[in-house]
Amino acid sequence: MGNWKKKPFGTSHKKKDPDLIAFTSLPPTLEDIKDALVRNRGIVGLAAKDVGLDPMALYFAITKTAALANVWNIVQEMVRDEAREMLLKAAKSGESWAVKFILTEGKREVPAFIESSSVVELKIAKPKNAKVSEG
């Protein structure tokens, strides 16, 4: 059987090509990282995996590099714009959840909708501890 020793988890018994190791260990360029952020729609974990970085290292790079922060913010805004467009499309097609979301987005008092046949009633939820004046 030979003199085979068990290797620690994550290591290989195969010899690694030193040229391949040197090639694959090159750090990603700024352009590589920007492209990965765009390609992965601003999802840092996926972009980091694409360029061979730890996600926390990429977050750190984004916070310290104005060019990366700019690309990341632009991509996030594009994704939000697409989501808003899809939400409006759903509301226009009569999806009640989309209409409710649009009407209640960012409001402190949340309207509660009760659907009954073709009539929709609107009730405003009162904040807790609201004082009612008697007069």
Concise synopsis of the structure shown:
With 135 residues, the chain is mainly α. 53% of the residues lie in helices and 9% in strands. A two-stranded antiparallel sheet has the order 1-2.
Descriptive account of the structure:
This protein is mainly alpha-helical. It has 2 domains: 18-85, no CATH class; 94-128, no CATH class. Helices cover 53% and strands 9% of the residues. The chain has 6 helices and 2 strands. The chain has a two-stranded antiparallel sheet with strand order 1-2. A hairpin with a 2-residue loop joins strand 1 and strand 2. The longest helix is centred in the middle third of the chain and has 27 residues, at 66-92. Residues 8-13 and 114-122 have low confidence and may be disordered.
Percentage of residues in helical conformation: 40-55%
Kindly report the average pLDDT value: 76
Unreliable spans: 8-13, 114-122
Strand content: 5-15%
- How far apart are the termini? 97 Å
Read across the widest sheet, the strand sequence of neighbours is: 1-2
The gross shape turns out to be elongated
- Supply the number of helical segments: 6
Structural class: mainly alpha
Radius of gyration: 27 Å
The biggest sheet amounts to:
2 strands, antiparallel
- Structurally, the number of domains stands at 2
Order of helices and strands: HHHHHHEE
The total strand number stands at: 2
Key terms:
single chain, 135 residues, mainly alpha, two-stranded antiparallel ribbon, 2 strands
Secondary structure layout:
Layout: H1 18-24, H2 30-39, H3 44-51, H4 55-64, H5 66-92, H6 96-104, E1 111-116, E2 119-124
Helix pairs in contact: 2-3, 2-5, 3-4, 4-5, 5-6
